[in-house]
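Progress note, project year one: complex with zinc ion.
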Amino acid sequence: MALSHLYRMPISLTSHGAAGTVTGSKHLLEVRRHDGSTTRLLLDCGMFQGEAVRRREEDPNRRFGFDPRSIDALVLSHAHIDHSGLVPRLVAQGFKGPIWSTPATRDLCAIMLEDSARIQEYDFAFDLKRAKKQGREPEEQEPLYTPDDVAPAMALFSTADLGEAVSIAPGITLTYTDAGHILGSAAVHLAIDDGERTLRLTFTGDVGRYVDRLLPTPAPFPQADVIICESTYGDRDHASMDEAEGELLRHVTEVCVERGGRLIIPAFSIGKTQEILYTLNALSNAGRLPRVPVFVDSPLAISATDIVRRYSKLFKPEVREELLKDPDLFTFPGVEFVRSPERSKQLNSMKKACIVIAASGMMEAGRVRHHLLHCLPDPANGVLAVGFCAPGTLGDQLLSGAKEVRIFWERVPVLASVDKMEFYSAHADRGELVRYLACQDPRQVKHLFLVHGVEHSLLALKKLVMEKGFADVAIPRRGERFEL
Ligand SMILES: [Zn+2]
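Model obtained:
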């Protein structure tokens, strides 16, 4: 064995989030060199949500597990809050390095982080007011950051286009490839030269689906030595569905036409809302959409839709062609974009059949909670879940068949129908994850780390990828350190 190998300085990986959970994505890479220098890179800086926060005595969003001042650079995979939601807190606590992302991710982060700060401020004030009135202790904690923390964070962003190789730290090159998950989403590929070897590391971020939608399917990626792979749906395949139109139309017809009710579609403002509008627009263009008003009740979704329109170059080629015939794929007769809180409140008391698309997708925050509060007790209404709901979230409770839920400290009976539609899942299922990894020679992959999944998904995916020839597969625990 060569002497240099014996004294090789280790590169290490420690997951501080999305380790045994689906939220809080945060992976720390430390590169130590013989000259005594160390580079610390953080991959994603996401917020924990749902059970991951509630079941712990200590809120994991309030303690990073590392010193933000010691991080040299942050690399983001995409703009979802569970991957970027703690960026303003990281910066407020002393992080001063560059934040790398694709241009679309930067633009989406700007509106998403501002929105997240305002929601936290609002929820805290709302709870304080009600607690005082009800003579109880407040339940909400202080906001993790305020709107004032967002601009200093945004000032640190630097962008790299898909396929563009950029040097982000001494000896470290970053290249993004399309992950096909949401607009701007990318897998992160790092070439890390520690003075003795070059380690090729891939972090998948969230992987999209191989179905016919607005965005291209996930792109194959260059051979890696180390892969950190998401596992959200590592234990199941999505119901096969070639097209979304028929399925969505069936739900609209049942709830709005046959029962005269309101169909609430809780959806991430970024990504999911635009995919649903794209389907509704296609149905409308084909004359198949029943004449019911459609409300997009989310200021964030409205801003996000504007950004998606601007980045039409990232759409699939077939979708870009459609733009020649229909220049706005997200607007059709009967759709109303609701910005003001007053108009949103009017919708709550409106009794006619309609479709309401509102955030958040997991039903944990945002205006959708007000709609659910008003709609759930009436059997004419329906809720259509279109995305993954982490354990313990309100969405998870409804999908598990809860007969009663708690919204804003009120007990609400669930009489409305609750359905789910998997077509819009932005995450690859297990077959698609295997397909995504099929571009790799598994014998060259020294370590495969499975993250971003609950335990049974992680274990099921581990078994599956080992059958495909990946020999060293690990499921990191939060704070566990691996030498690469
Ligand atoms: Zn995501």
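Residues 3-236+428-483 form a domain with the Metallo-beta-lactamase; Chain A fold (CATH 3.60.15.10).
Residues 206 and 230 are 6 Å apart (CA to CA).
No further modelling is planned for this target in the current period.
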